[in-house]
Write a structure and sequence with these properties.
alpha+beta, Amidase signature (AS) enzymes, eight-stranded mixed sheet, 12 helices, 8 strands
Length: about 375
């Protein structure tokens, strides 16, 4: 936002004043959106847990007794919406930074394909992978926010809302005849029992709604795609922010610095090879998915862990990073609650450009799930 402090989560940028307003923010303001504050992010947006060493880590509102990860990098956005401070918030997703906070905080979050929304005015991490997206408490709010961020005329949105048309038309028969790819045994072994229990229950619900399920084994291992995504991110992130991380006098988050400096060791030729390989992998993946309408995965491998139990060298973006790498659209939405009351989350993945379709699927699934639990913020 022009004239407002925007730190990108960095202590060293705490006095930085923005010189422009991003297009997606301007669109939200132009239709009457009220900006009530700037939220926290992981320093320079490089981290999936949501922690911030110098600027503070937002508290996941689903557990007021034990500090748990809020998800990152758009940690403050997730916490603000989940705790009722705001009805919606923006995030930027390079490897899961919208979907991970949404998953850990019990929200809906949309990762759009690269060409869907403008990125001007967004402080870059990776120009190749960065995508802005909405986080909300329910699918109708997400449909509204996404429509505005996309630049659709406000009057048309209003008419669709009043008439129940377009993205605001709940089609409970949308799943009939659709073929969904589900995770194989190798991917299931990554997940905790709580995640698998809610995932399987939702798959059964999708079958009841008319969907056909078939195990989808990725032609490129999810682990490998996550690593390739990380390499592209760290190379480009380092070159965007090297003036901060190369200077030992700067007070930088040590966990982020370790990740960021890994990009220093990647040569321009190696980066070019990664980008070329990415194009090949996109084609391979597209062909493998040709017979499927969507992929259904968990969003996270476990409900929000306690802050003192996480490994900062490990990424929680196992199921999120691959779809930034392949450039697909992915929706995270809450589906149940763990044995200790924490949200679990499902990810619906569709080809690039099918954001409207995945929103319509998510709206129907949310209606069928009929969840109504919110964090208990009573002292």
């Amino acid at each position: 936002m022009k004239g407002q402090i925007t730190t990108c989560g960095s202590y060293e940028m705490r006095q930085r004043i923005s010189v422009e307003t991003g297009t997606v923010v301007r669109r939200l303001m132009d239709v009457g959106g009220i900006v009530i504050g700037k939220t926290k992010t992981v320093e320079c947006a490089l981290g999936g847990w949501g922690t911030n060493e110098h600027m503070g880590t937002p508290w996941n509102p689903w557990d007021l007794e034990h500090p748990r990860v809020p998800g990152g990098s758009s940690s403050g956005s997730g916490v603000a919406v989940a705790s009722g401070l705001a009805s919606c918030a923006t995030g930027s997703d390079t490897g899961g930074s919208v979907r991970l906070p949404a998953a850990y905080c019990g929200l809906t979050g949309l990762k759009v394909s690269k060409a869907c929304l403008p990125t001007d005015g967004i402080m870059p991490l990776s120009q190749t992978l960065d995508t802005p997206g909405p986080m909300t408490r329910n699918m109708p709010d997400l449909a509204l926010m996404f429509s505005v961020m996309k630049g659709i005329d406000g009057r048309k949105i209003e008419i669709d809302m009043m008439n129940g048309d377009g993205l605001f038309n709940i089609q409970m028969n949308i799943f009939k005849g659709l073929k969904f790819g589900i995770i194989d045994q190798k991917e299931r072994s990554r997940c905790t029992d709580d995640i698998l229990k809610s995932y399987d229950a939702t798959l059964n619900l999708l079958v009841d709604l008319g969907a056909e399920l078939e195990v989808f084994t990725s032609p490129i291992a999810y682990d490998d795609m996550a690593q390739f995504n990380g390499a592209i991110t760290m190379y480009e992130g380092y070159h965007n922010h090297r003036h901060l991380y190369d200077d030992p006098s700067k007070s930088m988050d040590q966990n982020v610095k370790k990740r960021m400096l890994a990009g220093r060791d990647i040569t321009p030729q190696k980066h070019a090879d990664h980008l070329s390989k990415r194009q090949d992998h996109q084609l391979i993946f597209k062909n493998a998915m040709a017979d499927f309408d969507a992929l259904i995965t968990p969003t996270i491998i476990e409900p929000a862990p306690k802050l003192d139990e996480i490994d900062e060298d490990f990424t929680p973006g196992y199921f999120t990073r691959p779809f930034n790498y392949i450039d697909m659209s992915a929706l995270a939405l809450p589906i149940a609650y763990s044995s200790n009351g924490l949200p679990t989350s499902l990810q619906i993945v569709v080809p690039a450009g099918q954001e409207d379709y995945v929103i319509q699927m998510g709206t129907a699934l949310e209606s069928a799930l009929a969840l109504n639990k919110q964090p208990n913020l009573s002292p």
